[in-house]
Specification:
- The structure is a single chain.
- This protein is α+β, with helices and mostly antiparallel strands.
- The chain is built from 17 helices and 17 strands.
- It has helices at residues 13-17, 130-165, 168-188, 191-194, 199-204, 206-224, 227-230, 232-254, 257-265, 268-283, 290-310, 318-391, 396-414, 425-442, 467-478, 511-514, 527-539, and strands spanning 2-6, 23-24, 29-32, 38-43, 54-58, 65-71, 76-81, 98-100, 111-116, 121-129, 422-424, 447-453, 460-462, 485-493, 497-504, 544-548, 552-560.
- It has a 6-stranded antiparallel sheet with strand order 2-1-4-9-6-7.
- Strand 14 (485-493) and strand 15 (497-504) form a beta hairpin.
- The longest helix is centred in the middle third of the chain and has 74 residues, at 318-391.
- Its EC number is 2.7.13.3.
Length: 565
């Protein structure tokens, strides 16, 4: 095979046939890259059997405009192919451009071919008989189908996974796989066999697909390698590329395909950055995943082989093309495995966080109970002991009863496991009754308490959530009256849950002071603010205060049924 550059762009077949400017090529392949001028090739067949059916194949799907002149006994048969011809191409249904040799073909003369391509003119010319043609076609179908199937399976699996766990890295990986599929569809030519009507369009815009694939790789690299925190300088370069590639793609689509080809050429920068990330990550032991390292090595091999093929060092055979396709699939699979590893890490981290949460929840209970117990010492026990001291000399039986009430009350508060966070409302009311009897002993004929509890009510509440409300009602409502007062405790089961109310007929509260009661202050002791905060944390509800000056106060809260432990 020989090559001639048509610098004028006006040479005809007659001019070429008599030209002595042809230069011999090393074999049946061309290693010409992008050429601004039209090229002519002169091909001579060494072996030909006129009794067999033969096909001429040219394994490059990215030609823009090619005309082949096949010599016959009388003249030349002209065949056209390339994406410029779209559906008017003369090629037959095969992976690469292929033409059936006419029966009156003269194999003693040269075949001439003139071509133009933005994407380089590396190709191998082959003459195959009918059996080899069909066999090779079937091999291409099976090889391409399996590899396309692998990428399609990876795409849909990770897309579903990413949507299910709401992880953007998986979605970015799917973008990478999708563009890889498009790129391989353009370079392998497998779609030619399917009769897909946009096959020529995919070939024509393959440089744009390459730009899109480079963009997808950059986006995916930033996500999977966490470059923003691990490699900030490289991340800055990747951000520039994320801006650069879409601009180049727009220039390619709407201004000039030459600019697009240049943009695709800059894609090599992506792989340089990829190499730096992996080199630094492995050296600094930031990246240890064997899947990521495998994917990196495969990408490096693919880039080296692809460039060797582009520059003509290696022939652009269909075996080499499918080998690169195979490396793409294995690399994508390695990335998928690394993403699966990420899922496992996330699950393990979730479990660790769950254990931490449970431990912190237990610890918070311990702190909460310790806080409550500490608050009880100065506010209740001291006063009770003073009462017992006052009556012990006059009425030992009454003093003994008070000691018994205090003992039961303290045992109810302190003598239980910290994990027992909730108690039945009846246990809580028992603590209230012990407290009330002590207060009634301190202030005889001053305090009266009514219990309006729905019979058979099955309700659990946090410890010490009702007793402090009763304590506030007695201390700030009843005891400030000059006459006796009554506290009423209600527990009602409603359709939506339970309603707990502590109501007194004491002095009441000013409207301006009601909201201050729910504001936390370290000097307020257990206070309504603390109870309100606990209710918000436990049920998402809060205390409601209804009061009228001189008539009394009612404090109530809801316990939703669905929040019952």
């Amino acid at each position: 095979m020989e090559i001639l550059k048509d610098n004028s762009g006006k040479m005809t077949l007659s001019d070429v046939k008599v030209s002595d400017q042809f230069v011999a090529l090393p074999g049946n392949y061309s290693k010409a890259g992008y050429s601004s001028v039209r090229l002519w090739f002169k091909i001579k067949l060494n072996r030909y059997n006129a009794d067999e059916i033969h096909y001429l194949t040219i394994n490059n799907t990215l030609f823009e405009d090619v005309t082949i002149y096949l010599p016959t006994n009388n003249d030349y048969v002209t065949k056209h192919f390339g994406f410029a011809y779209k559906s008017n191409s003369d090629e037959i249904g095969y992976v690469y451009p292929a033409f059936k040799i006419p029966s009156h073909f003269d194999h003693n003369q040269y075949i001439y071919m003139t071509s133009k391509s933005l994407y380089g003119q590396n190709f191998i010319v082959q003459l195959v008989n009918d059996d080899l043609f069909r066999k090779t076609s079937m091999i291409n179908v099976w090889a391409g189908g399996i590899l396309f199937g692998v990428l399609a399976a990876l795409f849909f699996y990770n897309l579903v996974t990413g949507l299910a766990i709401k992880n953007k890295t998986f979605i970015k990986y799917c973008f990478f796989v999708f563009t890889t599929l498009l790129w391989n569809a353009a370079t392998t030519g497998l779609l030619n066999i399917t009769g897909f009507k946009y096959t020529h369009w995919i070939a024509e815009y393959s440089a744009g697909t390459g730009i899109l694939m480079s963009l997808a790789i950059v986006i995916f690299m930033r996500a999977i390698f966490q470059t923003q925190t691990r490699f900030p300088k490289i991340d800055f370069c990747l951000k520039l590329l994320i801006v650069y590639f879409p601009i180049t793609l727009l220039l390619f689509l709407f201004i000039s395909k030459n600019l697009g080809a240049f943009g695709a050429g800059v894609s090599s920068v992506v792989y340089v950055l990829y190499f730096i990330i992996m080199f630094k990550g492995i050296r600094n032991k930031i990246i240890r995943s064997p899947q990521l390292i495998t994917a990196w090595l495969l990408c490096i091999v693919s880039v080296i082989l692809f460039n060797l093929m582009v520059f003509g060092v290696l022939p652009q055979s269909y075996i080499m093309i499918y080998y690169l396709f195979f490396l793409s699939c294995v690399s994508a699979t390695a990335f998928a495995l690394s993403l699966a590893e990420i899922i496992n890490d996330l699950n393990e981290e979730k479990q660790r966080n769950q254990i931490r949460f449970e431990n912190s929840e237990i610890q918070s209970r311990q702190f909460e109970l310790a806080f409550i117990r500490a608050q009880m010492d100065p506010h209740f026990i001291h006063n009770t002991l003073n009462v017992i001291e006052g009556v012990i000399a006059e009425n030992k039986e009454k003093a003994g009863s008070l000691v018994n009430d205090l003992s039961h009350y303290l045992r109810n508060i302190f003598d239980y496991s910290n994990s027992e966070r909730y108690i039945s409302i009846h246990e809580e009311l028992d603590a209230v009754k012990f407290y009330v009897r002590i207060e009634q002993a301190r202030f005889p004929d001053k305090i009266f308490v009514n219990y309006d509890i729905d019979p058979g009510i099955q309700l659990k509440v946090p410890r010490l959530v009702i007793q402090p409300l009763v304590e506030n009602a007695i201390k700030h409502g009843i005891r400030k009256r000059k006459i006796a007062g009554t506290v009423t405790i209600r527990a009602k089961e409603l359709e939506h849950g339970y309603l707990i109310t502590v109501e007194d007929d004491g002095v009441g509260i000013e409207d301006a002071d009601k909201y201050k009661l729910l504001e936390y202050s370290p000097n307020k002791g257990i206070g309504l603010a603390n109870i309100n905060a606990r209710l918000q944390a436990e049920y998402g509800t809060q205390l409601q205060i209804v009061s009228e000056k001189g008539k009394g106060t009612a404090v109530r809260f809801d316990v939703p049924i669905k929040e019952q432990p």
